[in-house]
């Protein structure tokens, strides 16, 4: 873990040598020489260094302001509130970063007495020192083996960094499963796909929905069904498809409509593949799906058909999710109510999806999706939402 991640344009590598020396003289470790080990991917190495750094120092120059890589790295630092900007050319800083006080080192050649350099060092010290002390007092927890591999699944595990109530829910589910295995009571759970009983039309529709959903996204955990049936052991629960909430009493017409809608959404999203930040189930990386679901607080019963990753580094913590019941989104401005939201498909009529100010997509009714770091053009996202509207109307 480096104290400082230095973000700069590759063309400026020869110019930042004195800056690196000045930072290292303060006893800080600086990640700046981007030599990638054999067998490693360039973006993965940079992302790991960026995520573990205690401070991000961005060097704005004529080349850096035009670099997507530099802006993406700076945006990651901005989101974590650890960004310290430096100006080495007389250029206009990208709009998203103009509100941050910037150290002006234009014309600086390495002298240790430069007043702006002193301000810079004090600013970095204020960011790095608390994080160094916190790291020394914290015992690192073991990481999850195999994280970031596999395909989309709802059986995700919350990370240690952000404990969630989902962990306790998972534990409760395990107890329920054990009780059902040992109890042998009348309320014993059977998988919704393996139910025995009547062969009426409602059962056939539920089975059809379950089969279709299994092709679009992983099945929900049987333990969730277990908890529902155990809640009323005296009454026989109706046949249920967990992913859609369809019961025998719902009726053939509604069940068929929901099934067709989910299939059409998946088919529509696939029209935009391949896209770097668009994923369609079941080909959603596990960690990507987990991060997105946690950020958007998606109900565990909801199945995700697809998602658009709106982050610069691929974490999907800011994203747009397409479920069977609604769309869910999470923005970088989490301090406001509009930072996270859900729009059920029943509320789609009357909305107008379009590009908006400051790299956003207008979701209607004062809701916006932050696309400032998304690799997918805003007009494409608005187009997808407009086409989705014609499907769910």
Could you explain the architecture of this structure?
The chain has 393 residues and is of the alpha/beta class. The chain has 10 helices and 15 strands. It has helices at residues 17-24, 42-52, 68-79, 115-137, 165-183, 201-216, 222-230, 252-270, 286-296, 378-392; strands spanning 4-7, 30-31, 55-60, 83-87, 103-104, 240-241, 246-247, 278-280, 304-309, 319-323, 326-330, 340-344, 354-356, 360-364, 367-370. A hairpin with a 2-residue loop joins β10 and β11 (326-330). α5 crosses α7 and α6 packs parallel to α8. It is elongated, with a radius of gyration of 25 Å. Residues 139-175, 184-202 and 217-247 have low confidence and may be disordered.
Q: Helices and strands in order, then pairings?
A:
Elements: E1 4-7, H1 17-24, E2 30-31, H2 42-52, E3 55-60, H3 68-79, E4 83-87, E5 103-104, H4 115-137, H5 165-183, H6 201-216, H7 222-230, E6 240-241, E7 246-247, H8 252-270, E8 278-280, H9 286-296, E9 304-309, E10 319-323, E11 326-330, E12 340-344, E13 354-356, E14 360-364, E15 367-370, H10 378-392
Parallel strand pairs: 1-2, 1-3, 3-4, 4-5
Antiparallel strand pairs: 6-7, 8-9, 9-10, 10-11, 11-12, 13-14, 14-15
Helix pairs in contact: 5-7, 6-8, 8-10
């Amino acid at each position: 873990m480096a104290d400082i991640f230095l973000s700069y344009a590759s063309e400026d590598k020869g110019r930042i040598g004195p800056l690196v020396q000045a930072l290292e003289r303060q006893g800080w470790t600086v990640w700046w020489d981007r030599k990638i080990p054999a067998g490693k991917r360039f973006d993965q190495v940079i992302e790991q260094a960026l995520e573990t750094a205690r401070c991000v120092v961005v060097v704005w120059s004529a080349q850096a302001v035009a670099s997507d890589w530099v802006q993406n790295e700076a945006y990651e630092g901005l989101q974590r509130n650890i960004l310290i900007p430096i100006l080495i050319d007389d250029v206009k800083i990208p709009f998203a970063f103009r509100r941050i006080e910037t150290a002006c080192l234009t014309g600086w050649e390495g002298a240790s007495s430069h007043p702006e350099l002193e301000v810079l060092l004090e600013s970095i010290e204020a960011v790095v020192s608390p994080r160094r002390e916190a790291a020394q007092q914290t015992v690192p927890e073991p990481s999850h083996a195999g994280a970031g591999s596999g395909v989309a699944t709802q059986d995700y595990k919350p990370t240690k960094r952000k404990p969630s109530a989902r962990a306790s829910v998972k534990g409760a589910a395990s107890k329920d499963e054990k009780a059902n295995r040992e109890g042998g009571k009348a309320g014993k759970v059977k998988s919704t796909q393996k139910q025995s009983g009547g062969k009426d039309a409602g059962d056939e529709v539920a089975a059809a929905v379950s089969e279709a959903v299994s092709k679009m996204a992983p099945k929900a955990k049987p333990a969730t069904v277990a908890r529902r049936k155990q809640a009323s052991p005296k009454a026989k629960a109706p046949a249920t498809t967990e992913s859609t909430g369809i019961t025998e009493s719902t009726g053939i017409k509604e069940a068929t409509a929901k099934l067709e809608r989910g299939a059409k959404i998946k088919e529509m999203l696939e029209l935009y593949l391949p896209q770097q930040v668009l994923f369609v189930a079941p080909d959603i990386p596990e960690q990507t799906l987990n991060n997105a679901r946690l950020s958007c607080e998606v109900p565990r019963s909801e199945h995700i058909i697809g998602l658009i990753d709106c982050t610069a580094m691929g974490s999907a913590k800011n994203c747009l999710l397409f479920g069977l019941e609604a769309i869910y989104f999470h923005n970088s401005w989490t301090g406001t109510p509009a930072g996270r939201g859900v729009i059920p498909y029943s509320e789609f009529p009357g909305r107008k999806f379009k590009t908006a100010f400051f790299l956003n997509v207008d979701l209607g009714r004062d809701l916006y999706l932050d696309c400032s770091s998304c690799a997918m053009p805003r007009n494409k996202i608005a187009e997808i939402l407009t086409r989705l509207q014609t499907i769910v109307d």
